[in-house]
Amino acid sequence: MNIETPISSNANIEKESFLDVWKQRISYGISDFACNLIWNMLTLYLMYFYTDVAGITAVTVGTMIMVTRLIDSFADMFTGVIIDKTHSRWGKSRPYILFGSLPLAVFGVLCFYAPDLSADGKVIYAYATYLGISICYGLVNIPISSILPSLTSNARERTNLTTVRIVLAFIGATIVSVATLPLVHLLGRGSEVRGFVLAMSLYCLIAVICLYLTFRNVKEKVKVVKQKVSIKESFVALKGNKPWMIFAVSTLFMWGSNFFLQGSLIYYFTYNVGSKDIAAIIAGITSSIPLIGTILVPVISHRMMKRNIFLLGSLISFLGLVVMLIANINVTVLITGAVVYAIGFGMRQNMYFSMQADPVDFGEWKTGVNGAGLISAINGFIGKVAMAVSAALSGALLTWGHYVPHAHQNSQALLMIRSNFIIIPAILIIISMLIMCFYNLDKYYPQIRKELDSRIG
């Protein structure tokens, strides 16, 4: 296995023109704009599409998502290993962004197509298409993360690249959150079956164009030194990377909290609050308002360590959930709580992406092994495990509460929906914060980066 060590200096960013720097930032950022057009459709609407449009039971959907995500998680780790072994004229990560985009779009459309099949046929079709889009999404999204250390070795520029990426990702997510239900109504002309597949087709077309632009404009500029390291040695080196382990476990609960909330949002406002229109507004808030938190991060990063910014954002999100819990069905207070939650989420998600590259450098400093692809793949694995478990538990809780689509829900079903949307996410945020308190790489990272640069300078 070829492991590669960056040999660019922190000063390289200063040698580039203003236009070149921003061309790379925007081109890198639109990759996640594209991914979020597809990803947010999956997290916000796919479970609802399966249960209320395709007519599959909630527990079956939850189990299906869990099984396919777990299978796909192992595929992600394989993708990471392949990236680390890739040496093409386009670089290590860029080829997958280009060649994975079309299969991703095709499976995206197929996921929101409802064929006229038997009950068992619908379940088999859902398994096949959801597994397909999960694997293709990892094939595109993992390289977007693994490419970051190859774009620059400057820690501050990594934060800037991450900030632009998150801003554009939130814009993509906001478009899906706000525009999807109106698009379904407009394009479907009264048919959600037709409306969802046409809306998804439009998003996938835009995504393919954006991913091509990323491939064309983003260059892997950090030069590398190749050395042979076995896969076993890579995993052994990873096991000694304590900062990454703490980061990984903490973000497992971070993503779990978000997936519970996003997956149950349309249920909560349709059945608990009694207005599907409010669901679109809240979805828009949770997708757009995080921009405020994201933009705040570069401002306060000069004064606070990354870990502390993550903890602050988590605390703000937790307080937002408390406000929504107190609000009950008061729409004004619910919107206020959603805004507070979203600001905090923007801060902690920015830190999630910014912090990913630092344990890679720590591992290289400690062991000589640079496993950016493997670490990115396992981080993706963790996110998909969080999504799998949250979907399975959400579906099980809905079934246990005797949820019935398109009907007045009993008190137990309403409690389960509320637990999925507010109570469980709040608990998971607290757990994530407690774990992140043990992360201390920020204190030593500047010296580690300095030593790495001196080794290869």
UniProtKB/TrEMBL annotation:
The chain crosses the membrane at residues 33-50, 96-115, 127-151, 163-184, 196-215, 244-266, 278-297, 309-327, 333-353, 374-401, 421-441. Keywords: Cell membrane, Membrane, Symport, Transmembrane, Transmembrane helix, Transport. It is found in: Cell membrane. The lineage of its organism: Bacteria, Bacillati, Bacillota, Bacilli, Bacillales. Signal peptide: none annotated. It is a multi-pass membrane protein. This is Sugar (Glycoside-Pentoside-Hexuronide) transporter. One of its GO terms (molecular function) is symporter activity. Pfam families: MFS_2 (PF13347). GO terms for cellular component: plasma membrane. It comes from the Bacteria. Gene3D superfamilies: MFS general substrate transporter like domains (1.20.1250.20).
